[in-house]
Write a sequence for this structure.
């Protein structure tokens, strides 16, 4: 048995290669070459792969059976296995006929940024370890604060792993703002139960965050939506009044801009006015829809977002950087410190560069942190704001073309949004709005390999097929293919039911 264990080059143990923390130079060259070719191959040929994999767990596990940690593999062998698994066993979201969830094809500069971040591996817990990386993230936070209508000199924010962590951060900061004593004494120090409000179409990461904060899901009031799937401001005001009468402690309104299923944007100004009148924190979950602020003609859809106390925005959604990259932004410059600050003796802190630098570990949920901002920084540096505006405009116009083509073929578009998500049912069949029928049509389209769409439920009851444009390579040709696949699926499913 070899005892010459070396994490980075097992060949060092049998004397064939120099002991090195980074594999030998030749082996490294082979590894890099393999990875570059695999990446470029995928980026340029994703459209030739089946969009959805075979969903058979036995097949994946069988393939993984080739690995034996007691008999380590050669680097290229291991890479080939990983490459095979990625090619065969995942839904290929960069495929131009993937009309899926918000999983855009990642940008080239984003992929490069993530690779650099992994290799240089800066530690972003404290400023003094990685001043360059922390300043890059701060610069991006200020730039996005300004785009959302905050004063960049009097606002703040932090990168998160995604929208769920940003929403969780929002709940914590809203709690710390409303009940500062909770940060020391916990929720049991309060005289009553704090409650928060989100629309019935809001994202379920809000409920999850309520669990994680110790508030519990029953503290989340789901407010009814109107016929456009937007939170009803009237109902919100009523619920707040009722909770106050019952002696509860309303502290937060979470508005959604835009909803995950259908792209509905809550009436931000009205909700902002209610929150201000009642003294509640307004958080706007703009995880994907927030990208509309980068396009002058779409900005008005998010009118009022600058009034929010905090905002969730996910660059890994519509800004197409590799996962995970979320942002939590706030117009309260000291709230992150007030929520997350702890002091330690062992962190190589503090203020060696003066008091004005930000130490991320005292301002966010994470401690050791990776350089999440680099992939966004590089993409934005190369595309510019205008480049991003162009991408979003294109997605929006391809979605408009899809609406038109669907209507021409007798599908009824049921959601009302200018953003790039289309929900529809079948007008040509008596059962065209039933859940089983639409599920069957969806399954038929996806298993035909022609396109990938999903099914969702609106207002808790109406089942719809959902198609979302998230890929720059998706154009009229792909839309035509999707509509043909839907039309063929309609025939097939209806025939099977005769
Ligand atoms: C996707 C999404 C989230 C969750 O974000 P993750 O990045 O998946 O954690 C939250 N809110 C909305 C509106 C979303 O669309």
């Amino acid at each position: 048995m070899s005892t010459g264990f070396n994490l980075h080059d097992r060949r060092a143990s049998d004397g064939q290669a120099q002991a090195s923390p980074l594999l030998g130079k030749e082996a490294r060259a082979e590894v890099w070459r393999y990875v570059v070719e695999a990446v470029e191959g995928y980026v340029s040929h994703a459209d030739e792969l089946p969009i959805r994999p075979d969903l058979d767990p036995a097949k994946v596990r069988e393939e993984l059976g080739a690995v034996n940690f007691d008999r380590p593999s050669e680097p290229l062998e291991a890479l080939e296995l990983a490459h095979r698994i990625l090619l065969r066993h995942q839904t290929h979201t960069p495929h131009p006929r993937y009309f899926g969830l918000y999983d855009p094809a990642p940008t080239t500069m984003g992929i490069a940024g993530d690779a650099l971040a992994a290799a240089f591996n800066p530690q972003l817990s404290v400023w003094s370890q990685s001043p360059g990386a922390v300043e890059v993230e701060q610069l991006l936070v200020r730039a996005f604060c300004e785009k959302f209508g905050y004063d960049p000199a009097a606002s703040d924010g932090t990168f998160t792993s995604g929208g769920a962590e940003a929403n969780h951060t929002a709940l914590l900061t809203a709690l710390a703002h409303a009940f500062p004593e909770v940060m020391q004494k916990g929720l049991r120090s309060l005289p009553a139960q704090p409650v928060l409000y989100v629309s019935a179409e809001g994202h379920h990461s809000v409920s999850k965050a309520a669990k994680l904060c110790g508030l519990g899901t029953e503290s989340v009031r789901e407010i009814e939506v109107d016929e456009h799937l937007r939170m009803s401001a009237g109902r919100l005001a009523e619920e707040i009044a009722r909770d106050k009468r019952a002696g509860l402690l309303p502290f937060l309104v979470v508005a959604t801009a835009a909803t995950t299923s259908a792209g509905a944007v809550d009436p931000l100004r009205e909700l902002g006015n209610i929150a201000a009148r009642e003294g509640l924190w307004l958080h706007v979950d703009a995880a994907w829809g927030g990208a509309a602020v980068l396009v002058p003609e779409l900005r008005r859809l998010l009118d009022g977002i600058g009034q929010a106390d905090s905002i969730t925005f996910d660059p890994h959604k519509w800004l197409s950087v590799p996962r995970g990259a979320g942002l939590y932004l706030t117009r309260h410059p000291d709230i992150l410190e007030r929520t997350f600050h702890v002091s330690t003796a062992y962190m190589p802190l503090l203020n060696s560069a003066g008091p004005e630098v930000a130490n991320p570990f005292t301002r966010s949920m994470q401690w050791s942190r990776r350089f999440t901002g680099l992939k966004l920084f590089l993409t934005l540096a190369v595309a510019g704001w205008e480049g991003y505006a162009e991408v979003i405009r294109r997605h929006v116009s391809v979605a408009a073309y899809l609406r038109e083509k669907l209507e021409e073929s007798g599908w009824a578009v049921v959601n009302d949004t200018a953003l790039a998500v289309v929900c529809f049912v079948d007008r040509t069949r008596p059962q065209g709005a039933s859940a089983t029928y639409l599920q069957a049509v969806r399954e038929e389209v996806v298993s035909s390999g022609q396109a990938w769409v999903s099914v969702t439920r609106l207002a808790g009851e109406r089942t719809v097929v959902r198609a979302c444009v998230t890929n720059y390579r998706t154009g009229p040709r792909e839309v035509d293919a999707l509509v043909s696949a839907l039309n063929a699926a309609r025939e097939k499913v209806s025939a099977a039911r005769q």
User: Anything to note?
Assistant: The radius of gyration is 25 Å.
